[in-house]
Amino acid sequence: MSLHSPKTISLILGGALLLAMAPYCSTSSWACSVSGVGSFTHGAQTDGSVVTVCAKSVVTSVKPVQSKVVPPKPVPPKPAPPKPPLPKPTPTKVPVVKPVVVVKPVTKPVVKPVAKPVAKPVAKPVITPKPTVRASTTSKVGQANFAPDALAVTVDSSVISVAETANFATNASEHFRSATILGRLAEVRFQPATTFWAFGDSTSSSTGSHKFLRAATYRVSATQTYLVSYLFQGESTWQPSGQVSASASLAVQVIGGDQAAKSPEPNSKIRLVSGNCLQHPSAYGCGP
What we know:
- By secondary structure, the protein is mainly beta.
- The protein has a domain at 149-176 and 189-262: Sandwich (Immunoglobulin-like).
- The protein has two helices and twelve strands; from the N terminus they run H-E-E-E-E-E-E-E-E-E-E-E-E-H.
- It has helices spanning 6-21, 257-262; strands at 40-47, 50-65, 132-146, 153-155, 160-161, 165-170, 175-181, 184-198, 204-205, 209-211, 216-232, 239-255.
- The strands form three sheets. Strands 5, 7, 8, 9, 11 and 12 form a six-stranded mixed sheet that branches.
- Strand 1 and strand 2 (50-65) form a beta hairpin.
């Protein structure tokens, strides 16, 4: 393939364009950021109906580096001083014998040389070098997502009539979730705050009591807001981290006043009869 062909030039220009745009391409980031000082820091971030708790652990390990020990040079012992020469014996003079006096020769005592003590060499103390310390830091990050319990909507009556007060409620209550992040237990607390009601007839309220003015089927929905806080094992203070919400709905049928009066009793039956059962109890179909 020739370098001057249009196809080759297009490929080269396309590769150069990709390399130029690489620094500006978006990359995936961590869901939340941590704050604080210490070997274990944490944080949280809420997004709609989910709260993300994240943590960072920094571990510093110290390893001693062995250094070579240089032994001291041996000190040679000093040579012993030479022994002094023994004194030469004094020649004995032959005395002149006189006829009367005999003179005995006086022998001088032989002085033995005293050997001087030999000084022993003193070895120098061996200095052990202190080990060199090398420190390395390792950091780890982790996170977990938490969501509140599923929300449910209930109503106090199975039959709702027009202009009758219907009382709606949810199952929202304080509850907890837990998970282990970087070897430490994290607990998240959900506390009910507010409830927003939409009754399906273009009306809404912060309370669950409502009167419907027309007979129809309505979709009643509730949006529950929770205050969120979290706590890591070994700590005593709950950390507030915003709000999350959960939603649920319920379909209800509202009937008119005349429909409620004409509605048959649950145990009543419809029968085919040949006449008025009140006037002719024995007519066909009027029996029990």
